[in-house]
Design brief:
The protein contains eight helices and no strands. It is mainly alpha-helical. α2 runs antiparallel to α3, α2 crosses α5 and α2 runs parallel beside α6. It is globular.
Length: 152
C-alpha cells in the first residue's frame, strides 16, 4: 500500500495540486515516448522548467506504459522501472534541485499546460493491474521508490 500512496503523492505533485479544471474522464494513455537527448547546448535541466516539465511528462507516461506492458508480472515491472530510473535520473535530480531552491510555484506553472496529459498518465498508473499485484513485492517497491528519489 505504501507504493500506491507514493504514486498518488507523486501524481498530485506533478499535476500541481492546485486550481485546475476537473480531469477529463479517460482511460486512454499516450504511447510511451522515447526520451530525446537534450541538445548539446541546452543548459541545466533545473534551469529550463518547460523542458523539465516535458521530460517529467515523458517519464510519467513511460511509467504508465511500462506498468501496462508488465501486467501482473512483478519481475518484468521491476526491471522496466529500473530502466526508467536510469533513463530519467536527470529529471529526478533537476526536480529535487527546483524544490530545494524553493521554486515549486514556478515548476507548477511549467507543469500546468501539461495537466491533462499528466492526469491521464497518473490515472493509468493508479489503475494498472501491476500496482495492486506488485505493491507488496519488496523488489518492485524498491524499484518504484528509487524512480522518484533524488540521488544523494
Amino acid at each position: 500500500m505504501f507504493v500506491m500512496r507514493h504514486v498518488l503523492w507523486v501524481a498530485l505533485l506533478l499535476c500541481g495540486c492546485g486550481n485546475h479544471r476537473p480531469a477529463q474522464q479517460t482511460t486512454r494513455v499516450a504511447p510511451p515516448v522515447d526520451a530525446p537527448a537534450a541538445p548539446v547546448d541546452a543548459g541545466p535541466l533545473d534551469q529550463d522548467l518547460p523542458r523539465l516539465a516535458r521530460r517529467a511528462l515523458e517519464m510519467t507516461q513511460n511509467v504508465a506504459a511500462a506498468l501496462a506492458a508488465a501486467g501482473d508480472d512483478c519481475a518484468v515491472a521491476t526491471q522496466k522501472l529500473g530502466e526508467l530510473r536510469d533513463a530519467y535520473a536527470d529529471v529526478v535530480a533537476a526536480n529535487a534541485k527546483v524544490m530545494h531552491d524553493g521554486r515549486a510555484k514556478e515548476m507548477r506553472a511549467a507543469l500546468d499546460p501539461l495537466h491533462a496529459q499528466f492526469d491521464a498518465a497518473a490515472q493509468a498508473i493508479m489503475g494498472s493491474k501491476t500496482l495492486p499485484k506488485c505493491s507488496q513485492d519488496p523488489a518492485f517497491a524498491k524499484a518504484f521508490d528509487a524512480l522518484f528519489e533524488a540521488p544523494p
